[in-house]
């Protein structure tokens, strides 16, 4: 397997995880039970962390030196 194939495979995994995050976030928005909503939000956050994405709802550190 070439480096390009490995890179493509990782990108596909990342895309799949991002898709899962979106689906879980949408399910959380539809959830009527507060505990279920929180559980889904936590699950989405953990998956987002795996993809290396930041939560856009949190303030970002604007200092480029950190």
What does this structure look like?
There is one protein chain. The protein contains 2 helices and no strands. The longest helix is centred in the first third of the chain and has 28 residues, at 3-30. The chain is elongated and about 45 Å long. The chain is an all-alpha fold and 66 residues long. It has helices at residues 3-30, 34-51. 70% of the residues lie in helices and 0% in strands.
Number of strands: 0
- For the termini, the CA-CA separation is 36 Å
Low-confidence stretches: none
Shape: elongated
Strand content: under 5%
Which properties best describe this structure?
66 residues, mainly alpha
Provide a compact summary of the structure.
The protein has 66 residues and is mainly alpha-helical.
Q: What is this structure's SSE topology?
A:
Elements: H1 3-30, H2 34-51
Helix pairs in contact: 1-2
């Amino acid at each position: 397997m070439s480096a390009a194939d490995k890179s493509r495979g990782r990108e596909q995994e990342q895309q799949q995880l991002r898709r899962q995050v979106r689906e879980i976030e949408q399910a959380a928005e539809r959830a009527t039970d507060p505990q279920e909503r929180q559980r889904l939000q936590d699950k989405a956050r953990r998956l987002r962390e795996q993809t290396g994405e930041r939560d856009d709802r949190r303030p970002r550190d604007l200092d480029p030196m950190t």
